[in-house]
Amino acid sequence: MSKPVTIIMVEDDEGHARLIERNIRRSGVNNDIKPFTNGTEAVNYLFGSDGTGVCHKGNALLILLDLNLPDMTGIEILRRVKENQYLKCAPVVILTTTDDSHEIKRCYELGCNVYITKPVNYESFANAIRQLGLFFSVIQVPQATK
User: Fold this and answer.
1) Cα–Cα distance for residue pair 47/84, rounded to 1 Å
2) Which of 10, 11, 126, 144 is placed for a possible disulfide with 17 were both Cys, Cβ 3.0 to 4.6 Å?
3) Are 13 and 46 in contact (CB under 8 A)?
């Protein structure tokens, strides 16, 4: 039997983080959500004390990632995750205000699975997150291997 999926949320805006979690829960997803407000803490968790990511071998992770973080870019985190043998299978959903087509293309080239632009309008953003929660409730996330 596989372990349940852990959702890693890397979001520095506390209001957005609450909105994301609330709407994921409203969609019936009860998986553990580990929130991080900066890239350093998220990277430390993802790659572990030895920096290899082996600590997540056998775990199923799904990463929600903001691109605009106070200490590093989400692009850097995405690149590192997708280059790592233990983490590269983890789906990465980009949730950001950046709608620049070059950034979107770059994220997909680096291996992101879904790119969602946070609308400035609260209701539109809440609706996008509700849809994301429904998506989470039906997808199968691969476990980290090797």
Assistant:
1) 9
2) 11
3) no
* Residue 93 and residue 114 in contact, taking contact as beta carbons nearer than 8 Å: yes
The pair of structure tokens assigned to 80 is: 């590192």
Within a domain: 36: yes
CB atoms inside a 10 Å sphere around CB 122? 10
Whole-prediction pTM: 0.86
**What would the mean pLDDT of 86-109 be, rounded to a whole number?**
92
Structural domain contains residue 142: no
Residue type at 39 in one-letter notation: G
Percentage of the chain exceeding pLDDT 70: 79
Please tell me the total count of domains within the chain: 1
Task: Give which of 91, 90, 116 is closest to 103, Cα–Cα.
Answer: 116
Which residue range forms the structural domain that includes residue 95? 6-137
In a domain, 143, yes or no: no
What's residue 88's pLDDT? 94
**31, pLDDT greater than 60:** yes
> How high is the pLDDT of residue 1?
41
Instruction: Give the pair of three-digit tokens for residue 107.
Output: 């994220």
Which amino acid does the sequence have at 106? R
Which one-letter DSSP state was computed for residue 3? P
